[in-house]
Protein backbone atom coordinates (compact mmCIF):
# COMPACT_ATOMS: atom_id res chain seq x y z
CA UNK A 1 0.00 0.00 0.00
CA UNK A 2 1.30 3.47 -0.88
CA UNK A 3 0.88 5.38 2.38
CA UNK A 4 0.80 9.16 2.30
CA UNK A 5 0.43 9.64 6.05
CA UNK A 6 0.56 7.69 9.29
CA UNK A 7 -1.37 8.20 12.52
CA UNK A 8 1.28 8.67 15.20
CA UNK A 9 1.62 8.96 18.95
CA UNK A 10 4.35 8.74 21.57
CA UNK A 11 3.72 6.63 24.64
CA UNK A 12 5.20 4.74 27.57
CA UNK A 13 5.07 0.99 26.97
CA UNK A 14 4.91 -1.68 29.70
CA UNK A 15 6.85 -4.93 29.72
CA UNK A 16 4.80 -8.07 29.03
CA UNK A 17 4.80 -8.83 32.79
CA UNK A 18 3.45 -5.39 33.70
CA UNK A 19 0.92 -5.54 30.88
CA UNK A 20 -0.36 -8.83 32.37
CA UNK A 21 -0.82 -7.10 35.72
CA UNK A 22 -2.66 -4.20 34.08
CA UNK A 23 -4.95 -6.71 32.34
CA UNK A 24 -6.30 -7.72 35.77
CA UNK A 25 -7.50 -4.11 36.09
CA UNK A 26 -9.03 -4.31 32.60
CA UNK A 27 -10.91 -7.52 33.48
CA UNK A 28 -12.36 -6.00 36.66
CA UNK A 29 -13.47 -2.90 34.77
CA UNK A 30 -14.89 -5.01 31.93
CA UNK A 31 -17.02 -7.11 34.30
CA UNK A 32 -18.61 -3.88 35.53
CA UNK A 33 -18.70 -1.65 32.45
CA UNK A 34 -18.67 -3.96 29.39
CA UNK A 35 -17.21 -2.51 26.21
CA UNK A 36 -14.09 -3.69 24.40
CA UNK A 37 -11.06 -4.68 26.44
CA UNK A 38 -7.64 -3.50 25.27
CA UNK A 39 -5.28 -6.29 24.26
CA UNK A 40 -2.32 -6.78 26.60
CA UNK A 41 0.19 -5.98 23.86
CA UNK A 42 -1.58 -2.67 23.08
CA UNK A 43 -1.58 -1.24 26.63
CA UNK A 44 0.30 2.06 26.94
CA UNK A 45 0.25 5.55 28.38
CA UNK A 46 0.03 8.21 25.67
CA UNK A 47 2.39 11.17 26.13
CA UNK A 48 1.81 12.93 22.81
CA UNK A 49 -0.83 12.29 20.18
CA UNK A 50 0.28 13.64 16.78
CA UNK A 51 -2.47 12.23 14.58
CA UNK A 52 -2.17 11.88 10.82
CA UNK A 53 1.36 12.80 9.85
CA UNK A 54 2.66 13.14 6.27
CA UNK A 55 5.41 10.70 5.33
CA UNK A 56 8.14 13.36 5.15
CA UNK A 57 7.34 14.38 8.74
CA UNK A 58 7.26 10.71 9.82
CA UNK A 59 10.72 10.33 8.33
CA UNK A 60 11.98 13.43 10.20
CA UNK A 61 10.61 12.08 13.49
CA UNK A 62 12.11 8.63 12.95
CA UNK A 63 15.49 10.30 12.38
CA UNK A 64 15.27 12.73 15.32
CA UNK A 65 13.50 10.82 18.10
CA UNK A 66 16.37 8.39 18.92
CA UNK A 67 18.27 11.50 20.09
CA UNK A 68 15.57 12.57 22.55
CA UNK A 69 16.03 11.28 26.08
CA UNK A 70 12.89 11.05 28.20
CA UNK A 71 13.11 11.01 32.02
CA UNK A 72 11.31 8.01 33.51
CA UNK A 73 10.58 7.00 37.11
CA UNK A 74 8.17 4.72 38.93
CA UNK A 75 4.47 5.38 39.20
CA UNK A 76 1.66 3.72 41.07
CA UNK A 77 -1.53 2.94 39.19
CA UNK A 78 -4.10 3.49 41.89
CA UNK A 79 -7.44 4.52 40.49
CA UNK A 80 -10.00 3.82 37.79
CA UNK A 81 -11.49 6.65 35.75
CA UNK A 82 -13.69 7.17 32.72
CA UNK A 83 -13.75 9.63 29.83
CA UNK A 84 -17.46 9.93 29.05
CA UNK A 85 -17.04 11.31 25.48
CA UNK A 86 -14.95 8.48 23.96
CA UNK A 87 -16.39 5.98 26.54
CA UNK A 88 -12.92 5.00 27.68
CA UNK A 89 -12.30 3.43 31.10
CA UNK A 90 -8.72 3.81 32.30
CA UNK A 91 -6.25 3.18 35.11
CA UNK A 92 -4.61 6.32 36.45
CA UNK A 93 -1.54 7.05 38.54
CA UNK A 94 -1.20 8.82 41.85
CA UNK A 95 1.79 9.84 43.92
CA UNK A 96 2.37 11.28 47.36
CA UNK A 97 1.61 14.66 45.73
CA UNK A 98 -1.89 13.55 44.72
CA UNK A 99 -2.97 12.77 41.20
CA UNK A 100 0.08 14.47 39.62
CA UNK A 101 3.25 12.44 39.25
CA UNK A 102 6.14 14.94 38.97
CA UNK A 103 8.45 12.81 36.79
CA UNK A 104 5.54 12.06 34.44
CA UNK A 105 4.85 15.77 34.00
CA UNK A 106 8.59 16.20 33.35
CA UNK A 107 8.56 13.41 30.75
CA UNK A 108 5.58 15.06 29.04
CA UNK A 109 7.26 18.49 29.09
CA UNK A 110 10.58 17.09 27.89
CA UNK A 111 9.02 15.22 24.98
CA UNK A 112 6.94 18.23 23.97
CA UNK A 113 9.90 20.59 24.08
CA UNK A 114 11.68 18.26 21.63
CA UNK A 115 8.55 18.15 19.48
CA UNK A 116 8.20 21.93 19.55
CA UNK A 117 11.81 22.19 18.41
CA UNK A 118 10.80 20.01 15.46
CA UNK A 119 7.86 22.28 14.61
CA UNK A 120 4.98 20.56 16.42
CA UNK A 121 2.47 22.50 18.48
CA UNK A 122 1.90 21.49 22.09
CA UNK A 123 -1.81 20.94 22.81
CA UNK A 124 -3.56 23.52 24.98
CA UNK A 125 -5.40 20.74 26.86
CA UNK A 126 -4.16 19.52 30.26
CA UNK A 127 -2.14 16.27 30.24
CA UNK A 128 -4.25 13.61 31.95
CA UNK A 129 -2.02 10.55 32.27
CA UNK A 130 -3.88 7.25 32.01
CA UNK A 131 -3.70 3.73 30.62
CA UNK A 132 -6.84 2.97 28.61
CA UNK A 133 -8.39 -0.37 29.63
CA UNK A 134 -11.75 -0.40 27.82
CA UNK A 135 -13.17 1.36 24.83
CA UNK A 136 -16.88 1.80 24.06
CA UNK A 137 -17.66 1.05 27.72
CA UNK A 138 -21.12 1.61 29.15
CA UNK A 139 -21.82 4.08 31.97
CA UNK A 140 -20.68 2.48 35.22
CA UNK A 141 -20.04 3.35 38.87
CA UNK A 142 -16.28 2.86 39.16
CA UNK A 143 -16.23 3.64 42.91
CA UNK A 144 -17.14 0.02 43.65
CA UNK A 145 -13.87 -1.15 42.04
CA UNK A 146 -10.66 -1.22 43.96
CA UNK A 147 -7.37 -2.97 43.42
CA UNK A 148 -4.03 -2.84 45.20
CA UNK A 149 -1.74 -0.18 43.74
CA UNK A 150 0.28 -1.45 40.79
CA UNK A 151 3.85 -0.22 40.65
CA UNK A 152 5.14 0.47 37.14
CA UNK A 153 8.53 1.68 35.94
CA UNK A 154 8.01 2.12 32.19
CA UNK A 155 10.70 0.26 30.30
CA UNK A 156 10.18 2.04 27.02
CA UNK A 157 9.13 5.34 25.53
CA UNK A 158 8.18 4.74 21.93
CA UNK A 159 6.91 6.37 18.76
CA UNK A 160 3.98 4.33 17.49
CA UNK A 161 1.96 4.15 14.28
CA UNK A 162 -1.69 3.32 14.87
CA UNK A 163 -3.23 1.44 11.98
CA UNK A 164 -6.91 0.56 11.53
CA UNK A 165 -7.52 -3.15 12.11
CA UNK A 166 -10.42 -5.47 12.70
CA UNK A 167 -11.82 -4.90 16.20
CA UNK A 168 -9.74 -1.76 16.89
CA UNK A 169 -6.32 -0.35 16.09
CA UNK A 170 -3.06 -2.22 15.64
CA UNK A 171 0.02 -0.49 16.97
CA UNK A 172 3.45 -0.69 15.39
CA UNK A 173 6.46 0.62 17.28
CA UNK A 174 8.56 2.75 14.91
CA UNK A 175 11.25 4.08 17.28
CA UNK A 176 12.41 3.40 20.84
CA UNK A 177 13.60 6.54 22.60
CA UNK A 178 16.38 6.48 25.19
CA UNK A 179 15.07 6.80 28.73
CA UNK A 180 16.83 8.20 31.79
CA UNK A 181 16.05 6.92 35.30
O1 LIG B 1 -3.70 6.10 24.84
P1 LIG B 1 -5.14 6.35 24.77
O2 LIG B 1 -5.96 5.16 24.50
O3 LIG B 1 -5.67 7.16 25.87
O4 LIG B 1 -7.48 8.00 22.38
C1 LIG B 1 -6.34 7.83 21.58
C2 LIG B 1 -5.31 6.95 22.21
O5 LIG B 1 -5.24 7.35 23.55
C3 LIG B 1 -5.60 9.11 21.51
O6 LIG B 1 -4.30 8.76 21.11
C4 LIG B 1 -4.04 7.41 21.53
C5 LIG B 1 -3.64 6.56 20.36
O7 LIG B 1 -4.65 6.55 19.39
N1 LIG B 1 -6.22 10.02 20.57
C6 LIG B 1 -6.90 9.71 19.46
N2 LIG B 1 -7.34 10.82 18.86
C7 LIG B 1 -6.94 11.86 19.62
C8 LIG B 1 -7.06 13.25 19.53
N3 LIG B 1 -7.70 13.84 18.50
C9 LIG B 1 -6.22 11.34 20.72
N4 LIG B 1 -5.69 12.12 21.65
C10 LIG B 1 -5.85 13.44 21.51
N5 LIG B 1 -6.51 14.01 20.50
UniProtKB/TrEMBL annotation:
Boundaries of every Phosphoesterase HXTX domain copy: 13-90
Record field: catalytic activity: a 3'-end 2',3'-cyclophospho-ribonucleotide-RNA + H2O = a 3'-end 2'-phospho-ribonucleotide-RNA + H(+)
Chain positions of motif HXTX 1: 44-47
MF-aspect GO terms: 2',3'-cyclic-nucleotide 3'-phosphodiesterase activity; RNA 2',3'-cyclic 3'-phosphodiesterase activity
Keywords: Hydrolase
EC number: 3.1.4.58
Keyword Hydrolase: yes
List of catalytic residues: 44, 130
Hydrolase recorded as keyword: yes
Entry coiled-coil feature ranges: none
Function of the protein: Hydrolyzes RNA 2',3'-cyclic phosphodiester to an RNA 2'-phosphomonoester.
Record-stated family: Belongs to the 2H phosphoesterase superfamily. ThpR family.
NCBIfam families: 2_5_ligase (TIGR02258)
Protein name: RNA 2',3'-cyclic phosphodiesterase
Lineage, uppermost ranks: Bacteria, Pseudomonadati, Pseudomonadota, Betaproteobacteria, Burkholderiales
